[in-house]
């Protein structure tokens, strides 16, 4: 469903701030696969997300979604295939517009927008039904401005808006990081439910190792713009936080030894 | 007095169309578009030069709208494709339009007094209906018979035009494209992630906004009987004044209400200026100063009154706490106030 081929991206090339964001990165995801991504700050997780969504374009390499090479396609056009939830709950919704208007914008993701009304009677029914699955009572507040909702409610709404039109790829960028523990759990459970129900091909970045282990059927660890560890299927099921930390240290440790060998 | 107010209603209605254009760019798109200072005059000059050269005033007015549409489109391109800051893109376009407007007119002023304009067309058509007598009769009936207006045509027709545009605009802003346009001004990252081309949305909004501004400019030229290179100076502030006064007085809860409020704001702005100019001490040249003061007032007064309300609320709260502490709170009040702590 998604394939990243030899992706290479450098920021600020030719300046002292030059930084290799992604170095010959390879990633393959099958349909319905749910991959969680962990890694320290600056490992290239967000760059990876932005690379898939088209916010940044690769210096070299190919992004292939559902067999189509989208490397040169701009963000807004690529968004027809991609649903996305941001870390900041404020980013995923338009605060001065009502819940139903926000849903109508999300509904328009897959088709060409025209001069028909965005919120019709028929769509209202659909929106109501979808909002009901969140169990937050939002279906009774459809004409409320989204800016009045709490962060957790907004993030749950963002998640629904990104998924109810069946995207080919779902990108979740630390979407529970800005919420308090109970709200984060709520959104995490919703994520699990929605992804399972719709069999969405999902890539989720998180800083929470436990979350990365609990969710999804594959896990990748990134460092310095590369994937340094991958666990899929059965191997992923057996992972624990401790094993993951050991693995991290083993890989990092080996690297240090290598560095020392070069230095001597 | 009455006829002065009557005139301010008339011109308020015409300027309301411009204010709706400013509302679209300034409020909906969140784009401080200075282009309007130029496109207002572009509308006036295109209409004036075409009328003087014998074209039908209706065709001339439509061409004026198209000219404004093009001006807005160019500003949009400068911003989205040229990546120029919104304010600067508008200012550049405004200054460029100054020269273009001079070229269009071939002089800094074109008089239209003896020409057939859309205004005279309306008046002629209206005179046949005999509605003036009816409305004037009504006025005399309520005791305002001593200064009857010459014609009701402009007021009524412009009211209809402004309301039709307002209704069209609020309907448009509820369509799929309209929603994407509003979201572009509200949260660009979000609407991009839902596959809307935000650059095109901005261009579209600026084009429609400036088309309305140019339309209004062409009507103002025909209403006043001349087009002048300087008539656009301060037009953005007048537009903002209308939007802000409207919001402060009539609210902006829904799009329909906000757009109606803009029309109301435009009329009230005209009335305030007319009344202010009747003060002996003030001269015609003071209009811009008065405008600036109105805008400052409309922006600051609601904030001050909010703060004052907050202060009195706090004071009352403190007093209550003090009284409870002293045990001097009246019996009835205390029960009410301490319900929560009793639980």
From TrEMBL, chain A:
Localisation per UniProt entry: Cell membrane
Keyword hit for Transferase: no
Keywords linked to the UniProt accession: ATP-binding, Cell membrane, Membrane, Nucleotide-binding, Transport
Its membrane topology: Peripheral membrane protein
PROSITE patterns: ABC_TRANSPORTER_1 (PS00211), ABC_TRANSPORTER_2 (PS50893)
GO molecular function: ATP binding; ATP hydrolysis activity
SUPFAM superfamilies xref list: P-loop containing nucleoside triphosphate hydrolases
GO terms under cellular component: plasma membrane
Predominant cellular place of this UniProt entry's protein: membrane
SMART domains found in the cross-reference section: AAA
InterPro entries: AAA+_ATPase, ABC_transporter-like_ATP-bd, ABC_transporter-like_CS, ABC_transporter_ATP-bind, P-loop_NTPase
Domain ABC transporter as annotated: residue spans: 2-249
Key word ATP-binding present: yes
Stated name of the protein: ABC transporter ATP-binding protein
Organism: Peribacillus simplex
């Amino acid at each position: 469903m998604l394939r990243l081929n030899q992706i290479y991206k450098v920021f600020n090339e030719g300046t002292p701030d030059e930084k290799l964001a992604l170095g010959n990165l390879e990633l393959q995801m099958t349909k319905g696969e749910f991959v969680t991504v962990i890694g320290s700050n600056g490992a290239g997780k967000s760059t990876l997300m932005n690379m898939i969504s088209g916010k940044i374009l690769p210096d070299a390499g190919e992004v292939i979604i559902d067999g189509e090479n989208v490397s040169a396609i701009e963000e807004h056009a690529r968004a027809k295939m991609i649903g996305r939830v941001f870390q900041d709950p404020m980013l995923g919704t338009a605060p001065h517009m009502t819940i139903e208007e926000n849903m109508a914008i999300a509904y328009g993701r897959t088709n060409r927008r025209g001069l028909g009304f965005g919120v019709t009677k028929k769509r209202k029914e659909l929106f109501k039904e979808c909002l009901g699955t969140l169990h937050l009572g939002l279906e009774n507040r459809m004409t409320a401005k989204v800016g009045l909702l709490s962060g957790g409610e907004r993030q749950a709404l963002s998640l629904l808006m990104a998924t109810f039109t069946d995207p080919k790829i779902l990108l979740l960028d630390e979407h529970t990081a800005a919420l308090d523990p109970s709200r984060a759990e709520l959104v995490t459970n919703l994520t699990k439910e929605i992804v399972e129900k719709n069999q969405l091909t999902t890539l989720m970045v998180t800083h929470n190792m436990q979350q990365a282990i609990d969710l999804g059927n594959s896990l990748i660890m990134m460092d310095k713009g590369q994937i340094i560890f991958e666990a899929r299927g059965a191997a992923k099921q057996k992972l624990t936080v401790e094993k993951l930390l050991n693995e991290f240290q083993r890989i990092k440790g080996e690297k240090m030894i290598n560095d020392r060998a070069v230095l001597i | 007095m009455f006829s002065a107010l009557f005139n301010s209603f008339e011109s308020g209605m015409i300027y309301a169309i411009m204010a709706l254009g400013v509302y679209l760019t300034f409020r909906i798109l969140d784009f401080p578009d200075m282009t309007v200072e130029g496109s207002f005059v572009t509308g006036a000059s295109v209409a004036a030069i075409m009328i003087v050269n014998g074209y039908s005033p209706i065709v001339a007015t439509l061409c004026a709208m198209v000219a404004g549409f093009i001006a807005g489109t160019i500003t949009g391109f400068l911003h989205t494709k040229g990546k120029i800051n919104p304010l600067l893109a508008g200012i550049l376009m405004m200054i460029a339009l100054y020269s273009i407007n001079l070229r269009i007119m071939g002089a800094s002023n074109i008089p239209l007094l003896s020409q057939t304009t859309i205004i005279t067309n309306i008046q002629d058509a209206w005179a046949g209906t005999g509605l003036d007598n009816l409305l004037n009769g009504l006025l005399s009936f309520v005791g305002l018979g001593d200064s009857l207006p010459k014609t009701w045509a402009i007021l009524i027709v412009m009211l209809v035009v402004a309301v039709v545009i307002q209704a069209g605009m609020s309907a448009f802003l509820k369509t799929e494209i309209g929603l994407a346009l509003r979201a572009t001004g509200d949260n660009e990252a979000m609407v991009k992630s839902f596959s809307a081309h935000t650059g095109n949305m901005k261009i579209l909004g600026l084009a429609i906004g400036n088309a309305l501004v140019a339309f209004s400019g062409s009507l103002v030229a025909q209403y006043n009987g001349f087009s002048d290179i300087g008539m656009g100076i301060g037009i953005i502030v007048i537009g903002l004044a209308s939007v802000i006064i409207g919001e402060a007085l009539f609210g902006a809860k829904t799009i329909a209400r906000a757009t109606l409020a803009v029309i109301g704001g435009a009329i009230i702005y005209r009335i305030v200026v007319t009344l202010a100019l009747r003060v002996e001490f003030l001269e015609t040249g003071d209009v811009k100063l008065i405008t600036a003061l109105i805008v400052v007032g409309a922006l600051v007064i609601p904030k001050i009154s909010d703060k004052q309300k907050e202060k009195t609320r706090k004071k009352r709260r403190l007093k209550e706490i003090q009284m409870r502490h002293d045990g001097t709170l009246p019996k009835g009040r205390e029960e009410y106030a301490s319900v929560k702590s009793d639980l």
